[in-house]
Specification:
Blueprint: H1 2-11, H2 14-42, H3 46-69, H4 78-107, E1 114-115, E2 118-119, H5 125-145
Antiparallel strand pairs: 1-2
Helix pairs in contact: 2-3, 2-5, 3-4, 4-5
Length: 151
């Protein structure tokens, strides 16, 4: 029971979650910019463009989280950092899978929001998908990548 309380307390850090959410906002900008450029500029299907956009965001967010949000955690050095980076990519694959399914599912609704000749429905599912995965990613990154409750 003590371990559960410690875990909840570590996850409930308002400062850490605020940092994580801020980093997530930066990641969302990279994600949406990359995804939008691929869809609008290169005609890539939304689901596939989303995968590339998400990976770009994961790399950017890892770098910022490593230096800011979780800077006091994790062993220093290239190898430990590389291991955290690989764990982060693995952990975020769950969030990415959720995002992919949401984008794919919403695109199946065959809705259309045409503005100036462009169907915004191609883009609208992207921020929805990102928002849904934030909590999942925060918990998983905290517990698995940076191990906030490690004794």
């Amino acid at each position: 029971m003590v371990r559960v309380r410690e875990t909840v307390a570590a996850l409930a850090s308002g400062v850490r979650f605020g940092k994580f959410a801020s980093v997530g906002a930066v990641g969302a900008v990279f994600d949406m910019a990359t995804t939008t450029a691929l869809i609008v500029g290169f005609g890539v299907l939304g689901e596939y463009a989303k995968l590339v956009g998400a990976e770009v965001a994961i790399v950017v967010m890892f770098a910022i989280n490593e230096r800011w949000t979780f800077s006091e955690l994790g062993a220093p050095g290239r190898l430990p950092t590389l291991k955290r980076f690989l764990r982060s990519n693995l952990v975020r694959s769950g969030g990415l899978a959720v995002q992919f399914l949401i984008v794919r599912g919403l695109r199946q609704l065959e809705l259309s929001v045409v503005v100036f000749g462009f169907d915004l429905w191609q883009l609208i599912p992207i921020p929805i998908a990102i928002g849904v995965s934030v909590l999942l990613n925060y918990v998983a990154e905290s517990l698995i990548t940076w191990r906030v409750t490690r004794s």
